[in-house]
């Protein structure tokens, strides 16, 4: 197997474990100094380096989206750089909390029970058989529309405000 093929396989596996991987899977694939350059709205423990951060991001997504899965469409690798075109799918069953730069609760999307399928492009840098950098472009607006987050109804805005208040209280505990 070529180095380029191996890099592509590592990148794909690192996406798939977001849906169902154990912590040990992250330790095996994610370099201790790896950076997820796209986790700007996730919880603070997902904004640091290494496998623990990637696992924290996976737990955050899994907590809100039941049946989280990724369908891989295309993988293009050039040496240690890999691009993966995929679709993330799931059902919104629990509050999805986004956080501000300072780690405080920013927005809370109460569960809608709706399903979504959002396209994503992931970019990776692979070194020594491990992910060391990750970037992504996601169709967040498409996901938000499918889940009924936008345009929000007055009733959903009320539910969002109530959920945000609860989330802020939970953080203080």
Automatic annotation (TrEMBL):
InterPro entries: Cyclase_SnoaL-like (IPR009959), NTF2-like_dom_sf (IPR032710)
A Pfam family this chain is assigned to: SnoaL
GO biological process: polyketide metabolic process
Protein name per the record: Ester cyclase
Species this protein is from: Kribbella soli
């Amino acid at each position: 197997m070529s180095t380029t093929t191996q890099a592509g396989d590592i990148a794909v596996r690192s996406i798939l474990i977001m849906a169902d991987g154990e912590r040990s899977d992250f330790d095996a694939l994610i370099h201790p100094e790896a950076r997820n350059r796209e986790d700007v709205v996730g919880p603070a423990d997902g904004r640091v380096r290494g496998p623990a951060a990637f696992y924290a991001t996976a737990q955050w997504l899994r907590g809100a989206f039941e049946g989280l899965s990724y369908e891989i469409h295309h993988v293009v690798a050039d040496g240690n750089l890999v691009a993966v075109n995929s679709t993330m799918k799931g059902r919104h069953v629990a509050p999805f909390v986004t956080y501000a730069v300072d780690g405080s609760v920013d927005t809370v999307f109460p569960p809608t029970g709706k399903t979504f399928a959002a396209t994503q492009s992931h970019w990776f840098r692979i070194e020594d058989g491990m992910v060391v950098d990750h970037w992504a472009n996601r169709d967040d607006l498409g996901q938000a529309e499918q889940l009924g987050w936008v345009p929000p109804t007055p009733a959903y805005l009320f539910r969002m405000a109530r959920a945000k208040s609860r989330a802020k209280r939970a953080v203080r505990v």
